[in-house]
Amino acid sequence: MQAEGWGDGPFAGLLLGAAENILYELLPCVTLLKADRVAVILPADGAAAAGGQDVARALERLGATLKCSVFAALGGPAADPAGLPASCREAERVLGFRELLGGRGLFTAEQLSGRTGSRTVCSQAEEAELAALLAGGSATGLRRFVSRIVRAELEHPAATPQSLQAFLHSLVLSGHRWLERALEGTPAPGYAPLPEAGGQAEEEVYRRLAAVMERFHASLSESRGGYIPKAVAYIRDHLDDPNLSLQQAAAVVHLSPSHFGEVFKRETGQTYLEFVTGERMRRAAALLRESPAKVSEVAQRAGYEDIKYFGQLFKKYAGVTPSEYRQSVREGG
């Protein structure tokens, strides 16, 4: 059993101590106070029987008396003392679902049997939305995005602690990969694995992504042509748009197309068209190496509607056709 509502530090310990005393008075049990929970052993034919109804009533009274939220997990019955460790492990597993179950109530492993895991990676559309928010620099927009995405996963009926953790990792890692692309040639901050998803999952994800956004915009002010990295990030995030133009990129950084074109060539050493074509070819090559997508789909995702024209450009870039390039990769060439 876990309880919250008295804050952190010593008050959290006082709350658990008070909760242990009340449970001992209300139920025929043996209790053990731990650092962040109370372990309770009940007779299998008594208060724990009938689906734990007596336990549920006791927990409800405990919460009302101490004005706190209570979350409890009921392990399976043990035939003898040797079976208690297995029952405790089952209860511990259920406790891991606390955030996914709203943080209060009494639950059993049987109630969670239908939870087989939700998605573990964010979608391309979500990655694109995140990239636009990071480049735009809106902390409010980023917080709303994180809140919407994370809460949707928390409320998914099939979610497990493992699937939630993997999804949050995917979301934060997507932000770091975007930063690496946007700051090409500049080391991005190291990625530290997320702690296990707890009651602060949403806040932790926002904090990590806000740090990515701050790092990107700090780099803009540090560089001589500070708006060029922002334009480059925009270009890389919109390579699949066949109509991606110099005018669009210039508008993102609030410059006239002519001035932007001059500065872009000075800072990158390439014209806008040369840069975009090179980026599209690199994306196409990566897709051919790493995905089973058809050549026509690769062309579209690289921003080309005319497959024949795409093939001509790719052969000029790689020296072989897209199909030949993929085959050489498979053969280890």
From TrEMBL:
Name of the protein described by the UniProt record: Two component transcriptional regulator, AraC family
Parts of the chain that traverse the membrane:
none
| SUPFAM superfamilies, per the entry | Homeodomain-like
Q: Does the keyword Protease apply?
A: no
Identify the residues that the record assigns to the HTH araC/xylS-type domain, covering every copy. Answer: 229-328
Does the record carry Nucleus as a key word?
Answer: no
* InterPro entries listed in its UniProt record: CdaR_GGDEF, Homeodomain-like_sf, HTH_AraC, HTH_AraC-typ_CS, Tscrpt_reg_AraC-type_HTH
What are the coiled-coil residue ranges?
none
| Keywords of this entry | DNA-binding, Transcription, Transcription regulation
Q: Any idea which GO molecular function terms this record carries?
A: DNA-binding transcription factor activity; sequence-specific DNA binding
